[in-house]
Every structure is written in structure tokens, then in C-alpha cells.
Write a structure and sequence with these properties.
9 strands, about 140 residues, five-stranded mixed β-sheet, about 45% strand, flat
Length: about 140
């Protein structure tokens, strides 16, 4: 009887810790859920942007996202994501590009088949629009 009580007590303590600690460890504010910014994604021919998140982390704006290939080919795809932040009136506030991302093959049942990216920006204005464009080709300013 004492052993059963002990196991239940330990389980309840671990359950409480699992719910309390992640909530206390972060001070991020989701800007999309609060309606402060809006996002638009444009996939390329070979790469999808599965999801994106925009957070305020202290003084910075942190943009996360995930890319995944569309087809089931056997070679890795080298891509990058262009991120453009617009003022509410449509003028461009900032532009950035992720480093090259090598998106793995899509093999069902064989592990993770997507890649995550992250960019940081200084403060942006409310009601801004953020556009994500998956891009495989080189830009004019890249050699």
C-alpha cells in the first residue's frame, strides 16, 4: 500500500513539473496569434513551407519556420527562404535570407523529413506583413 502511494505521489510531482517548467522557462510572445503581424507563405516548385511562427523574444523578433520537399526524389535539395517584412502601407521595411538549407529526402516512416530555419530581426512595427518565399535559385547578388 505504501509503495502504491509513493508511486502515485512521484507521478503527480513529475506531471506538475512537466506542465509548470516549460511555461516558466519562456518569455516569448506570439505576434501572429495576437494579431500584431500577419504572414504569407509562397512555396517553390520543389519545396513547401509547412509552418511559420513569429515571436517577440526580449528586444528581438524571432521568426521560425519549417520547410519540406514536395516530391520523393533521392537527392537533397539546397534551398533558402527569403523573408520580407512590409509596413502596413506596403513599403518594404526589411529583407533577409536564411543560410542555405539542405532539405532531406521524403521517405515515409523513415524519420524527420523537414528542416527548420530561424531568423532574428530588431523590433518591427505593428500591423506589419511578413512574406516567406522558398527559393532554390541563386540571386543576382550571390556568386
Amino acid at each position: 500500500m505504501k509503495r502504491k502511494f509513493f508511486v502515485v505521489a512521484i507521478g503527480m510531482c513529475l506531471g506538475m513539473l512537466a506542465t509548470v517548467i516549460p511555461g516558466c522557462a519562456t518569455n516569448r510572445v506570439d505576434l501572429v496569434d495576437q494579431g500584431i503581424v500577419s504572414v504569407e507563405t509562397k512555396p517553390s516548385k520543389r519545396v513547401n513551407i509547412l509552418w511559420t511562427d513569429v515571436y517577440r523574444d526580449g528586444e528581438d523578433i524571432v521568426i521560425y519556420g519549417v520547410v519540406q520537399r514536395r516530391s520523393r526524389t533521392s537527392y537533397p535539395i539546397k534551398t533558402h527562404v527569403d523573408v520580407i517584412i512590409f509596413f502596413p502601407d506596403g513599403t518594404i521595411l526589411q529583407e533577409a535570407r536564411t543560410p542555405d538549407i539542405y532539405v532531406p529526402r521524403r521517405i515515409p516512416g523513415k524519420g524527420i523529413n523537414w528542416k527548420r530555419f530561424e531568423l532574428r530581426f530588431p523590433e518591427i512595427s505593428p500591423s506589419s506583413k511578413i512574406r516567406f518565399v522558398a527559393h532554390e535559385d541563386l540571386h543576382e547578388d550571390k556568386t
